[in-house]
Amino acid sequence: MAPLVILVLVTLALVGLRAAGVTRVPPWPFALRCGVAAMFVATGLAHFIGMREELIAMVPPAVPAPGLVVTVTGVLELAGAVGVLWRRTALWAAAGLTAMLVGMFPANVYAAQQGISPSFGDALLPRTIMQIVFLAATVTIVVHFARARSSRAAVNAVS
Asked: CA-CA distance, 18 to 73, in Å (whole number)?
């Protein structure tokens, strides 16, 4: 639940600052990128500190080397968090995080079936809803930057 809270609070705080007239805060796509980055920093760090054993237990038995998988996904989450903050890599970082969220969903299903996570136990619905929110955030970033890139390409083609 903490990752969802982090995503929402950071995003809303920055959107709120902008709405309150703090013009140094860029428009909403920046706020969403910061919310996604903060969330993935928290979840990425959890792969190494605090929840590592629980995350290893969530890896389905069919996946070899669960400790390595947790380490690699933690590093990728941290790299993705940095990547979404830099405009030049935001599109690709968000696309990678989107793919990773989809790829890791079976671990959430397995954890729900096994009652591994104390936060949700065997409740798959809250896990799924959170995953959809996370996907909506990363896909929104992808779409925003893909449209911006497409618009720039169209302008360059006309010039």
From this structure: 33
